[in-house]
Design goal:
- By secondary structure, the chain is an alpha+beta fold.
- It has 2 domains: 139 residues, 3-Layer(aba) Sandwich (Glutaredoxin), CATH 3.40.30; 49 residues, no CATH class.
- It has 6 helices and 15 strands.
- Strand 7 and strand 8 form a beta hairpin.
- It is elongated and about 55 Å long.
- Belongs to the peroxiredoxin family. Prx6 subfamily.
């Protein structure tokens, strides 16, 4: 069996590699497209597939929410640009949502392989078919991978959860890692103060549940 693993492993904390690719909006350099912004990068196995159609429409409907968070969206599918454009027209007709973000034309599945988005268990004639899973990467402005979600082809993603995770990651980023967010956290909820934090002056109203668990409201003004 041939080696299908990427040369550079993609994991939380790794630097996302740069690449150039054709997209539904024309040629793109990944680093230039994401320059100074967060990025939600998500993959699809193919155009004109049912779950993917609902997902692209859902991300498109929330594009303003991502823009307000200084975050760009980037999709990937394994067909050419002409197919992408026909598919986008179909998505817009079905969902009533305008799709303004680019979708990579990963016909040779190079980018999907580079980002470890592939399903190594999908076989064609005994060889891995390199079928992209439903992967989500949230990448920070320094090109560091902050979150990875992987779904099987049968399960659609949850855009509200992607937004929630982005809010959490951005808050941690702003506080330089001084806080964490607990189960089911949404903006406005109490945060968790990192255990053993030496300077807790920005959390004057923290309360101790256990030595290792301190909760605190977060004053947005303290982040400025």
């Amino acid at each position: 069996m041939r080696n299908i693993l990427p040369k550079q492993a993609i994991y939380i904390g790794a630097k996302a590699p740069n690449f150039q690719a054709m997209t539904s909006l024309g040629p793109m350099d990944f680093y230039q497209y994401t320059q100074g912004k967060w990025c939600v990068f998500f993959s699809h196995p193919a155009d004109f597939t049912p779950i993917c159609t609902t997902e692209i429409g859902a991300f498109g409907a929330l594009q303003d929410e991502f823009t307000n968070r200084d975050c760009v969206l980037l999709g990937l599918s394994t067909n050419n640009r002409a197919s992408h454009l026909r598919w986008i027209q179909d998505i817009e007709a079905i969902t009533g949502v305008k799709i303004n973000f680019p979708i990579i034309c990963d016909e040779e599945k190079k980018v999907a392989t580079q980002f470890s988005m592939i399903d190594v268990n999908a076989l064609t004639n005994g060889e891995p078919a390199l079928t992209p899973l439903r992967a989500v990467y949230i990448i920070d402005p320094n090109k560091i991978v902050r979150l990875i979600q992987l779904y099987p082809l049968s399960t659609g993603r949850n855009t509200a959860e992607v937004l929630r995770c982005l809010d959490s990651l951005q808050l941690v980023y702003k506080t330089d890692g001084k806080i964490m967010t607990p189960i089911n956290w949404i903006p406005g909820d109490d945060i968790v103060v990192v255990p053993d934090l030496e300077n807790c002056s920005m959390f004057p109203h923290r309360r101790t549940i256990r030595d290792y668990l301190q909760l605190s409201p977060l004053d947005p003004n303290s982040l400025d």
